[in-house]
Amino acid sequence: xxxxxxxxxxxxxxxxxxxxxxxxxxxxxxxxxxxxxxxxxxxxxxxxxxxxxxxxxxxxxxxxxxxxxxxxxxxxxxxxxxxxxxxxxxxxxxxxxxxxxxxxxxxxxxxxxxxxxxxxxxxxxxxxxxxxxxxxxxxxxxxxxxxxxxxxxxxxxxxxxxxxxxxxxxxxxxxxxxxxxxxxxxxxxxxxxxxxxxxxxxxxxxxxxxxxxxxxxxxxxxxxxxxxxxxxxxxxxxxxxxxxxxxxxxxxxxxxxxxxxxxxxxxxxxxxxxxxxxxxxxxxxxxxxxxxxxxxxxxxxxxxxxxxxxxxxxxxxxxxxxxxxxxxxxxxxxxxxxxxxxxxxxxxxxxxxxxxxxxxxxxxxxxxxxxxxxxxxxxxx
Length: 381
What we know:
Elements: E1 2-9, E2 17-23, E3 28-34, H1 40-48, E4 55-61, E5 65-71, E6 75-82, H2 91-96, E7 105-112, E8 116-123, E9 133-137, E10 146-151, E11 154-160, E12 164-168, H3 173-187, E13 193-198, E14 201-205, H4 224-237, H5 240-255, H6 263-277, H7 285-292, H8 296-312, H9 316-329, H10 346-365
Antiparallel strand pairs: 1-2, 1-4, 2-3, 3-7, 4-5, 5-8, 6-7, 8-14, 9-12, 9-13, 10-11, 11-12, 13-14
Helix pairs in contact: 3-4, 3-5, 5-6, 6-10, 7-8, 8-9
């Protein structure tokens, strides 16, 4: 998703107007400066790198509207590159790159000191109706789903698409945080707000994560509207302090499924979420047995793993073997974890089992008693 237009540069010795491009998906902003000779590239790059470049009077044209921004939020030049140097010195080729996608120019990539840019919107036609809407990322597998939810006294329309979720309706900052965390829990992925339309303004967010996460179905598509509504209702009924705690629990839960993180770190984040919502100051087996709906001995195994990981920082395989041997020696009866294989698969089977128990227990607190089995294709305990 790219928006292209022109802007004014507030610096002597530079052209009055230059091209500018906003790539919302790649989270980049670029401008191009024409060069008279290729030798100027190195000199110009060194001149601008790391420095502020005041940009004003931004005008972007889309097929349906013109977007304008009087001044780009404070930014600095983070990188420079040749936008391709044409070997043909013909004048036409410099302007439209005949038969070639290169022009004589240098590309400057800008990095914002803050994350958001606000544009004014001027539709070309009265037929273009502007309704409030917010676009979020979609790390889940739900596609082409559409339904309404209630948030307070408002009715919002939710539309899932392959890469994004669109929520139409007027919302407050708190509403948007609730919706973001509801989406994150439903996908076990770090969903972020990308764009917000509040006529006559459009806000682009340039700080959101593209981390690969769980990537499987958490709730059945037929249960998606009800589950979404349950989470939103629960979060909106919390006090501000309770809500912030829930947000942190969801953040830890989601981080427990990031695929670029070691299994020990994933499990530690899941245990952080569990410690927050289990209702006790210190993780206790009796409470866990009830909360996770498991036998007391298995709850003691989980508590032991938690202590080994957090207090000793040892690998999950070693922690599992140590705690299992200790509980067996003490005569503690284990059911789910009665026998554990001392193989390379042990850490993953422990992580998968813990993640299933913790996620199911957390969803139950939101009134959702039926979800898909986490990592259903993998073997746990």
